[in-house]
Amino acid sequence: MASTTTVCVIIAAKNAERTIGRAIASALRETAVSEVVVVDDGSDDSTPQASIEADDASGRLQILKLDRNHGPAFARNRAIAQSSAPLIAILDADDFFLPGRFDSLLAGADDWDFIADNIVFIDSRNVPGTAPQVPHFEPAPRFLNIKGFIDGNISRRGASRGEIGFLKPVMRRAFLDAHGLRYDEKLRLGEDYELYARALLKGARYKVVHGCGYGAVVRPDSLSGKHRTEDLKRLYEADRAMLSGALLQDTRTALQNHERHIRARYELRHFLDIKAARGLAAAGAHALGHPGALPAIVRGVLGDKLEAFGARGKAAGNEPAAPRYLLPARADVQR
């Protein structure tokens, strides 16, 4: 399928001058890619110039520049509007595709609306000049349903980040257009989760294979780790918007659990904001005045303290983390 299919790769970039060249090069290397659309989302560094320097002169690269920062959802929607390839793939500006990603990912049955492969998380201190050596995993294709997807997006305190929403599926433009689906531009956190959840509610066939084709670079100053309190509020409000529709009971229960999870994170962050701005007494008064939020605040404060204590015990080594994979997978012994 990859030899006859065209893919548009969309890269929303904000102050990514150090990494954008690697991301673009990894996309242009793929023979199935007909368009690479970089949206410079209000950068104040050399991201546009670094993007131009990564061009391979094949005519496939397009660079759009926004006058101010709008967030990844807006930037991606702009890129979708400016492109025409039948398949759409998202690539974060920090990340890169492993060689042959689309040849492998698109080689199977044409029975999906969204298709995603495994992700290898790489400590930024370990990122080599060339793509890492990743084992060949058994594809083990399966389909995600809405309940499994939502359940897989509830993070566990103390565990490495591994929500299914991190997957970067290839999406059929025809399915998005048929159902009027685009990123919710109010969201600056969880915009991928929210789009995929709405697609699944519309009946999307979301296929997952366990072979690995996406490299995600983990660094402490990542923009995705700097979300605002308001971002959490908008994300649980997005869950509530989905809950307002007609849903099967197991789907409704899963969405309610996710909404409570995100709202608890919001309540803790809101409490800490008040404490930082007005002091502990004001924060305590706020908590007591909102008894429904009190359990989330207490659990969150205790959890943060325990996590900080554990982190102090590990700080001495400060060694780069070993690569890890989002999805459990077995090596393909037949290769």
UniProtKB/TrEMBL annotation:
Domain annotation Glycosyltransferase 2-like: ranges: 8-175
Protein name: Glycosyl transferase family A
Pfam families linked to this entry: Glycos_transf_2
Keyword Calcium: no
Superkingdom of this protein's organism: Bacteria
GO MF terms held by the record: transferase activity
SUPFAM superfamilies (UniProt xref): Nucleotide-diphospho-sugar transferases
Keywords, sorted A to Z: Transferase
InterPro entries: Glyco_trans_2-like (IPR001173), Glycosyltransf_2 (IPR050834), Nucleotide-diphossugar_trans (IPR029044)
